[in-house]
Amino acid sequence: MTPFNYLCYQREKSKKNRDLTVVVKTSVFKEGSQKDYAMFSKENLFITFILVLLLSVLNGAPVTWDTNSHVYTVVQLTTPGSAYADAVTQCASPAYVATVSNVDEWKFIVEHVLAVEDPAITTQVFIAGSMNITSGILSYDQGPESKLDNPTIFTHVNGQCFGFCNFDPITAQPQLTAENVVIDSTSSNTWKMQSTADYVLCESGGYDGTTVTAPVTESYIAEGGQTLTLVTPDGQEPVVSTTITFTNIQNPTDTFQIVYPTPIPAGSGSYIGSYDIPGPPIITVNFMFTYQQPYVSSYYPISSTNTLFTIVGQNFGEDNSAIAVTVGGQACATIEFLVSQQAISCSLATLPTSYSPIQVTVNGIPSTTSRLSVYYVNQNQFLLNSYQAELSTNYSTQKLGLQTAYPVPCITSTEQAALLKSNNINTQPNELLISLGVAWDPEKSAFVVDDVTYECIGYDMENPDPTWTSTTEFYYDVNANKTLAITDPLAIYSTLLLFGGVPTLDPSQWPSASTAGGDNVPITVSNTGFLLSTVTIGDQGPFPRNDNQSYTYTTKAGYLPYTAPVSINGQATNKNFIVSYAAPTMTSVSNPPTDGSEAVIITGTNFFTDASLITVTIGGIPCTSPVMVASNTQVSCTYIAGSGTVTPVVLKLGQVLSNELPMEYASPVISDIKSACTSDFDNVEITGSNFGTVTADVTVTIDTAPCTINSVTQTTITCSVPAGNKGDITNKVVTVTVKGLVSETFTIYCLDFAPMSFGNTNTPLEIIGSGFEAAGLTVTIGTADCVIIDASVTANGFKCTPDTWPQTLTSAVTITWTDLANPITKTFTYTQLDSISFDQNDDGTQVTIDGNGLGDFATTPVQIKAGSVSITACTQASIDGPLVCTIPASVVSATYTVENVISSTTFDWYLSPVLTALTFNGNALTTLPTDGGNVEFSGKFFETTSIGIANNITITIGTYTIDISESNVTSSELIEVHVPSGVGKNLAVNINLLQTAHDRSSPQTVTLSYTAPKITDVSNSNNVLTVFGTNFGDFEDQVTVTGYTTSKITIDHYSDAAEYHLYVTIPNDSTLDPVDFSITVAGQASDDVLDFVLTPQLVSITPLPTTSGATVKVNGYFMKDSYAVTMKLSNGTSTTLTCTNGNTDNTAMDCKIPSGQGKFTLTITNEHTKTFEYETQYQSPTLTGATITYNQQTKKILVTITGQNFGITPPVVKLNETTCQEVQLIEGSTLTCNIPDITFPPSGNTVVFVQSAELQSSNQYDLQYPTSCGSCSGQGVCSTDGSCACNLGFYGEQCDNTGEKKKESNGWKIALGILLPLFVIAALVALVAYLRHRRRASYNRYSKKYFMEFGNENH
């Protein structure tokens, strides 16, 4: 027995994971399985047997379905028209009312259970399923499926089937009434909701346990990725990592596998799942797995067959080849996915009169649908017919994922009314009465909803019904196109729900956008329509509609508020997203110098990018000429000189004001104090910056004593120390205050440093000042000690010798002695050469030497040497500035030493080559032939090695590179090398010395030009021009031609280097008029322009003319039928031909050739006297036959030859080497001639030749002479047919009879020739007569039968 198990499934959702549970209802074990795995006990089996036997006696015969091993029986209820409770009783346990949950089970029941009943069932049959009118859910209430956590079959929430629903999509959808499911055998075995029936379908078998959970959810079908959990009888659940194989029931080649419990992929169709339970014994468990049915939720009506018809729903799969679609019974072809699983398009050959029903079949599984929505284009909305009861419990509000659904207030346009009627939204006649959402306002005499007036159609506005009140309810009659008051609420079946409507935005504005733009604003947009809808916000989008209704809008740069209109599917709504910009905000203001020499820089946010929109005031005074320093964040402006703190600073962008900040001018800075180390304390001079110009604003203190201000400028203050405070000013602290802004302190030390000379590092450092003491005196320069020369120490200065000179140019000199409270530190700057660079000029005569610490070349010059060669001819513009030196002739690249500095230093200097001139053939090179030549390159610094390392030398000429060997380098000033062929002019020439990290090239001051091309002649052969000349170069891609368009150019360069041939292929239809012909090579045009005309060319005639003359096709190039064509025969005679029908590209024309023979010449001449001769011929003679007869009167052998093209005069005929005489030409196709020699023929074969003019026949003819004639008794000759041709008076095969020849009787031959055809004709006539007789007899027989039957029917 083949074991199968059956899967049922339902909807189940969790917050994070969506899992799939399969209930194995029946398990059949392999032979030899353990008893513990038995499905039924002996008692259960016995009861089942008795029940089945009883049912088979009382009712229809039980039928077993091999797929799940279940037994199905049709049972007649005790009383016809019984309720569902009686059906449940009739299917006694362990049987139950049948649970139909997949299309395969349904097909089996229809074809093998209901169809085999005798008599046939013509009423309704109960199957499991009850409607809960509170929840709107149709559920399984019997069998194993009823034990599921959520045994849903169909729900009104979204009108979708979650198991298998065979409801007629037009007339019998589930109602929100307390009824049960029946199979309606009166209506093609569809499902129907009904409270009574005559029969019940019972099912037995399946797992009757209690551990069952929810199966597949609808989202699994669309998305895939759900985990399969099998709930089975004890011991049959697969272990982890078991492989489960799924095989498609309709297509067994379609299989897939999972490793339990990994997720099942998305798909469609019905499958048998199979896995093994390890043994011993090994048990194979099989179960049925069916993906959820396709579901059609809405469609887009079309107006022409050129428009794609769009269908939207769920569970369409991912393979368009597995989908079939019918619309109103018509196949919809060319199916394509718009959204995987959810939306498809197809094309209809004709516009349907009705769109209903719409059927989508996926892998053989038909779709379900419930109250289709139809897209209402003009309002971007969907209309849905919904049962009135659904409104009270808020069903359908999530239909199709649309954000809102509300009753249509009323029908407001004829277009909307036509849409309702033509698109079959309403499925039953009583559903064409649609309740409306409006109320009647007697005071306004108008229809209203929430005080909004609606212009409803279908009633008389001028004469409304006086009985209407504010509580009157209304409906719309679709067929009658009338809006009427409801008198019987139970008669109104439908409410029209409108999905979509005006979108809402959250937020509706963005009040603080950055002027830089780029704010990503999350916006929630509701009522965005349908699955395929798109949303556009301003100029951004369209965005595909998403279920969470969230979209991201990026603000634009700007400063003025703007609106971003919202449109759905390209149609504008009345909603706008409003963007406003944040006010400019200042975070800091720079401290400008007091002299106003620098701009004020303001930093902040939201300044935008246009400085012309910005105004700044500081203390009420404009800060002029604003400039954007950094877009949106920084602006500068020019402000007046001043000092101290100024407030407020205000920035305005357009008309929007910023916050306020103060601005402080820069604080005063002291850089030096003069006169303090002398006795002149009455005029202390302080230098620095930001002192202002107002004396009253400035105060100076020396330590704590004031210094009376004498004068103030921006950079200088003079003041006097009061008499009581004069004294030693050394080590005093000075501060300057300007309008409350205080400088950093400056300590006065009367110190100075003597300059030191280059080259003498032993010269002591001399420190000059005042107040020095010898006791404990120490000096450091940087970190090195400076050794005090004791004898030099005085109060005004001393000398010291540094242990080591620091390696930095600026060092701190620190001085202290025993009584000094704080060490004195001064900065000492000295000169030391620490780097150098060499910059060689273009002609190699000078070098600029730059570096730190070159000192004063005029007084203490540095010494620069390359070995023993010194560079001394130098000038210096400023102390420590660069040196400009003359390069000695003997200098080469080398390691240079720089002396007479604090420390001797070495540097590598690599000379760059210098190119000055080019020489060719002993003269200065002007141009070089394009085939190249030996060139001398003159200059200097052509070094084969530099600083001990070999250079790779190359010469570049434009893009050409020449590698130079050492043998090419004659000296450091001359290179001789063969320059290869090339083209172009003013090509830059460089000498390159290549060495790792030290590549050098000569400046591009020398150029080379190749010689311009020169044309000596041009001719054409066929459609190819041959151009003769010089300096064409070897680069075909560098050549262009003037005068003709070209398709191909090739160049031949001959070995003598002087001659070039240029082959130019031009189009057949090139101009036949004279042209100015020239060529250009790499931009250089030939200096001569030829006035050139194409010569016409003849290449063939087809076919060759026959000797009798013919019109032939003359083929060639550059011909016109108006050109003169002359035909000259080999005998010297000429004739002018008539030619016509020249083609458009001048390559062919028809010419009439007169009769003639032999060879001839055609000469064509154009109007420019260009001629061309072409030699051709008539067709050669052709032999087709030859015979010999003996002329008894002339005693000659007559040769008769047949064939073609023998000419217009008798040709020469030869038989072997014998010339045939008296040749006669008969009509051009037959020749006769005589051979007088009676001893002819010779033994063996005789070959016949014909020669017309100079043309010999194209073939030869062999005459076979028979050898069986014998001697013909000496009275005849042997003819070509093998018989004797007898002399006169003789006859017989051997001419051995004399007298009159007896005539042979041929009478019987004649008789036979006449009678035989007559016999054949007579036989054919008899056959035809027989066949006509049979046909007439058959016709009479059937006619008689037909009329007899016809007569009986009419009597």
Automatic annotation (TrEMBL):
<keyword id="KW-0732">Signal</keyword>
<dbReference type="InterPro" id="IPR013783">
    <property type="entry name" value="Ig-like_fold"/>
</dbReference>
<protein>
    <recommendedName>
        <fullName>EGF-like domain-containing protein</fullName>
    </recommendedName>
</protein>
<dbReference type="InterPro" id="IPR000742">
    <property type="entry name" value="EGF"/>
</dbReference>
<feature type="domain" description="EGF-like">
    <location>
        <begin position="1284"/>
        <end position="1295"/>
    </location>
</feature>
<dbReference type="Pfam" id="PF01833">
    <property type="entry name" value="TIG"/>
</dbReference>
<dbReference type="InterPro" id="IPR014756">
    <property type="entry name" value="Ig_E-set"/>
</dbReference>
<keyword id="KW-0472">Membrane</keyword>
<dbReference type="InterPro" id="IPR002909">
    <property type="entry name" value="IPT_dom"/>
</dbReference>
<feature type="transmembrane region" description="Helical">
    <location>
        <begin position="1310"/>
        <end position="1331"/>
    </location>
</feature>
<keyword id="KW-1133">Transmembrane helix</keyword>
<keyword id="KW-0325">Glycoprotein</keyword>
<dbReference type="InterPro" id="IPR052014">
    <property type="entry name" value="Dictyostelium_Tiger"/>
</dbReference>
<feature type="transmembrane region" description="Helical">
    <location>
        <begin position="45"/>
        <end position="65"/>
    </location>
</feature>
<keyword id="KW-0812">Transmembrane</keyword>
